[in-house]
Amino acid sequence: MFAAAAAGLLATLALLLARAVLGPTVFDRLLAANATGTVAVLLLAVFGFLTGRPDFLDLALVYAMLNVVGTIAVLKFFRYGSLAE
Questions:
Q1: Please, what's the largest Cα pairwise distance for the chain?
Q2: Cα 3 to Cα 50: distance, rounded to the nearest angstrom
Q3: In this predicted model, what pLDDT tens digit does every residue of 40-79 receive, in sequence order?
Q4: Other C-beta atoms within 10 Å of 43: how many?
Q5: Angstrom distance (rounded) from CA 55 to CA 52
Q6: pTM for the whole thing?
Q7: Per-residue DSSP letters for 1-30?
Q8: What DSSP state is assigned to residue 83?
């Protein structure tokens, strides 16, 4: 069951990468990049479960926090033109 979930997540990742490359606006690309980070977190969790290594869940949580901070930083840069304000 988890192998099927991993295959579905990989298919979703391929579609998100296509949206990131072909997105008509920069915000579509940013949304695709954020969703790619979320799918990567899910893949880390599923892979950790499949291999029996629960320490991958810690890595997934750290990557999720970095994904949120990075998305907020990019949105702030697009709104103000600088990260200093």
A1: 47
A2: 8
A3: 999 999 999 889 998 999 999 999 999 999 988 888 888 8
A4: 18
A5: 9
A6: 0.80
A7: -HHHHHHHHHHHHHHHHHHHHH-SSHHHHH
A8: S
- CA distances, 10 to each of 18, 30, 36, 57, 72 (Å): 13, 19, 10, 18, 25
Quickly count: other Cβ atoms within 10 Å of residue 59's Cβ. Answer: 15
Record the tokens describing residue 71, joined without a space.
Answer: 């998305």
Residue found under tokens 């072909």: 22
Query: Residues 44, 63: contact at Cβ < 8 Å?
Result: yes
CA distances from 67 to 32, 35, 56, 60, 85 (A): 12, 9, 16, 10, 21
Residue 69 CA to its chain's centroid (Å): 12
Report the SS3 class of residue 84. coil
Count CA atoms within 13 Å of residue 51 on its CB side. 12
Per the listing, tokens 């954020």 go with 34
